[in-house]
Amino acid sequence: MFGMRKWNTPVLRPTAPFIIGGIAVFYLVAKAQDAMINSEEYKNDPRNPAIASGKKAH
């Protein structure tokens, strides 16, 4: 009754679209965040984390 089953349960194939979607959303959010941090409006703001880490303002 318990232990190894006769048929394996597929895990990766049904979840692949969700994994790919999660990676795409993570990448796009990171790019948007980087673009907002380097925008003219927030480039010289003292709350900008890029300035706090030592990255020079353009």
From TrEMBL:
Protein name: Uncharacterized protein
Entry GO CC: proton-transporting ATP synthase complex
Record carries keyword Lipid biosynthesis: no
Keywords attached to this entry: Membrane, Transmembrane, Transmembrane helix
Pfam family, one: ATP-synt_J
Stored InterPro entries: ATP_synth_F0_jsu
Domain of life: Eukaryota
Organism listed in the record: Mucor saturninus
One GO MF term attached to the UniProt entry: proton-transporting ATP synthase activity, rotational mechanism
Start and end residues of each stretch annotated as Disordered: 39-58
This protein's record includes keyword Membrane: yes
Membrane-spanning parts: 12-30
